[in-house]
Design brief:
It contains 10 helices and 12 strands. It has a domain at 225-343: Rossmann fold (3-Layer(aba) Sandwich). Helix content is 29%, strand content 23%. The strands form 2 sheets. The chain has an 8-stranded mixed β-sheet with strand order 6-7-8-3-9-10-12-11, with helices on both faces. By secondary structure, it is an alpha/beta fold. A hairpin with a 2-residue loop joins strand 11 and strand 12.
C-alpha cells in the first residue's frame, strides 16, 4: 500500500487558560483531543462538524501555525510536527491553504501579479522574471480568470474572484496537499458551486490531495471521497462518502444528516433534534462526549469512552451501540438509508 500524503496520529491541541490576580494558568481548552486520520494522494477527505468542534484547529495544527500539544503529523512519510523551521521550509511548499475569507487573506497593498509571484520567488520555482510571468499567467488560466487582471488590486474583484486568486496563490507553490478551511462558506450559493467545481477539476488535473474543512454537508457530499465527523475535539465517525450518507453509524452523524435539505420535492425525512447545548471544551463530559445529547445513550456511555473502530469495511465509528445485539442497536439496520437516498 502506498504511503498516505498526510497521516495524523493522536493529534492534540490544548490551549491554556490564564486568569486570576497573577494571571496563572487556570485550565485548558481541549480544542483537539486525540484526532487520527490519513489522506491518500489525490484524495479529498472532508472534516465536518458543528462550529467550535475543533475542525479549523486541526487544519492550523497540520500547517504548523502553532505548536501541537501531542501526537504527530507526517507528510508523505516524513514527520513534520517537530521539524526545525529551516528543515520545514521545503515541506511547507508541499502543503498550502485556502482560508474562509478571501479578502482578509490577500494583501490589499499588492497587485494580483505580485501576490501570485511571491510564493514562486520564495520557493525558487522560476528561472527568471519571464518564467515568473509565464507561471503567473498559467495560474490565472487554471482558476479561470483573465490574464490581464493581474495588474488589478484585490478590492477590485468580487468575493468569488478573490477566492479564485487565493486558490491560484496556493497552486503557485506546486503543492501536493491543499487544506481548504471553510473555503466556500463566505460565498453566495451560485458562486459556491463554481468554486467547488473548480477545486474538483484542479484535483483531477494536478492529482492534488485535499483536506476540506466544512460544516456544509450538501457541499461535502458533492465533492469528497471520504468524510470524518468531529464532535468536541474528537473524530466520532470516518467512512467513504456514500456509506456515511446512506447509513451513518454514529448518532451525532445521523442527527447532522437529518438536517440536510432533501433534494427531491415532497420527499420525507425524520428530523432529529438534539437536546441540550454542546458541552464546554474546557470541561468535556466523561465517557462518550456525545452522551449528554444522545437519544440512544445508556449507562456505559457516561462511564467509558468509546474507541474509533471498524463497523464494516472502511467504516469506523466511536459508539458503544455497536457492542449491543443488532435488535438493541438503532443504527444497525437500514435506518440511516432514509437520511439521504438520492444516490
Amino acid at each position: 500500500m502506498s504511503t498516505p500524503i498526510l497521516e495524523v496520529n493522536d493529534l492534540k491541541k490544548h490551549f491554556p487558560i490564564h486568569g486570576g490576580f497573577f494571571g496563572g494558568r487556570t485550565g485548558y481548552v481541549y480544542a483537539v483531543d486525540g484526532v487520527s486520520f490519513s489522506i491518500a494522494k489525490g484524495e479529498t477527505l472532508s472534516l465536518v462538524g458543528e462550529s467550535g468542534c475543533g475542525k479549523s484547529t486541526v487544519g492550523k495544527a497540520i500547517l504548523r501555525l502553532f505548536p501541537i500539544t501531542g501526537g504527530s503529523v507526517n507528510l508523505d512519510g516524513t514527520r513534520i510536527d517537530d521539524m526545525p523551521s529551516g528543515t520545514l521550509r521545503p515541506m511547507r511548499r508541499r502543503m498550502q491553504v485556502v482560508f474562509q475569507d478571501p479578502f482578509s487573506s490577500l494583501n490589499p497593498r499588492m497587485r494580483v501579479r505580485d501576490i501570485l509571484a511571491e510564493p514562486i520567488r520564495n520557493f525558487g520555482l522560476a528561472k527568471d522574471a519571464a518564467d515568473i510571468e509565464k507561471r503567473v499567467g498559467d495560474l490565472m488560466d487554471r482558476v479561470r480568470l483573465p490574464r490581464d487582471a493581474v495588474g488589478r488590486w484585490p478590492h477590485e474583484f468580487s468575493g468569488g474572484q478573490r477566492q479564485r486568486i487565493c486558490i491560484a496563490r496556493a497552486l503557485a507553490a506546486d503543492p501536493d496537499l491543499i487544506i481548504c478551511d471553510e473555503a466556500v462558506s463566505a460565498l453566495d450559493v451560485s458562486v459556491k458551486a463554481q468554486i467547488v467545481n473548480l477545486l474538483q477539476d484542479l484535483q483531477k488535473e494536478l492529482g492534488l490531495a485535499m483536506l476540506f474543512i466544512s460544516h456544509d454537508l450538501a457541499i461535502v457530499e458533492h465533492m469528497t471521497h471520504r468524510v470524518a465527523v468531529m464532535y468536541l475535539g474528537k473524530i466520532v465517525e470516518v467512512a467513504p462518502k456514500r456509506q456515511l450518507f446512506a447509513a451513518p453509524k454514529h448518532p451525532y452523524t445521523e442527527a447532522l444528516l437529518s438536517a440536510v435539505p432533501v433534494p427531491e420535492p415532497g420527499a420525507q425525512r425524520e428530523r432529529i433534534i438534539l437536546t441540550g447545548d454542546v458541552p464546554s471544551p474546557i470541561n468535556p463530559p466523561k465517557g462518550c462526549r456525545f452522551h449528554t445529547r444522545c437519544p440512544y445513550a445508556f449507562d456505559r456511555c457516561s462511564k467509558e469512552e468509546p474507541e474509533l473502530r471498524p463497523t464494516e469495511e472502511g467504516h469506523f465509528a466511536a459508539c458503544h451501540l455497536h457492542d449491543r445485539p443488532a435488535s438493541e442497536n438503532p443504527l444497525a439496520g437500514a435506518r440511516g438509508a432514509a437520511v439521504i437516498a438520492h444516490h
